Amino acid sequence: MTTIRFEIEKFDGEINFNLWQVRMMAILVQSGLKKVVTGKKPENLNCWEELDEKALSAIQLCLTNTVLQEVLMEKTSSALWKRLKTFYATKSLANRLVLKQRLFTFRINEGELLRDHISQFITLLNGLKNVEVHIDDEDHVTAQFRAKTE
To answer: Pfam families, alphabetically (predicted)?
Structure first.
């Protein structure tokens, strides 16, 4: 039996949750644990609890201590996954406003590579898209221009 090892940055509450979620789900898929996390318990699966424990531990190992402390009470992988999504992928007004504020105050740092700056800008736009905030072309151009000139 071949063991495949995946490395993923631990989620700390600061990095982009949506990107971390995609990577974590990819690991769970590769490990055959996705169905357990999504909570769709098949009738013919006898080892459901064992798979759930594996999925739960896989997710827990990819969280920093601070984030893990917030979700420690969850005893199933499905409940843990839902709690993380509730905390970090929320589409609340407050979260939407914070992301919009980040967009309009986004600036290039002195000495920062343009490639890195553009990557961060795209990540910010994707974060807004994930919480269903529409940025029209005029605001997009304005934010890009301000990010490079101030």
So the answer is: Retrotran_gag_2
